[in-house]
Amino acid sequence: MSRIQRARLRAHNPHTTTQPSALPTAPATASVTGRRPAARALAATATLALATAALVAVPSAAFADPGAPVVLAANTLPVVIANLQAWVMGILAALATLFLVLAGVYWATAGGDPAQVDKAKGALKNALVGYGLAVLAPILLEVVKGIVGG
């Protein structure tokens, strides 16, 4: 053991009376297990109780009363069909784009393998079908609207 290591061990040993430690020590403070944690817990409990009392005391907050009658109305059929059209077109376009990207990846990684090229062609056909359905979605929904009577 070197001289420096022995000096460090002596400095950390509270039973030695040789030299005071060169390391800074923490100042003497009040006991951590004193009243401070209990006071914080009491303050937190009091704050929670006060907030709960304030919420219960105000009727609109306690009963969630909006103050005016709430009328719930369903959308009309044309609005529902327009929303459905937007969703269907978005989903079809996203799927078609996914298949187009997959077709490109398959074709780029084929490396001359005929099975992989056929797989890429199939994904490309699926992408084209998806884009076609996305374009035809408004027409198909007009047919559905005509059948339903909207």
From TrEMBL:
InterPro entries in UniProt: T4SS_pilin (IPR043993)
Stretch list, region Disordered: 1-29
Keyword Transmembrane applies: yes
UniProt-recorded name of the protein: TrbC/VIRB2 family protein
Organism: Dactylosporangium matsuzakiense
Pfam families linked to this entry: T4SS_pilin (PF18895)
Residue ranges, compositional bias (Basic residues): 1-13
Keywords for this protein: Membrane, Transmembrane, Transmembrane helix
UniProt key word Transmembrane: yes
Regions crossing the membrane: 41-64, 84-107, 128-148
Ranges of Low complexity composition bias in the record: 16-29
Lineage top rank: taxon: Bacteria
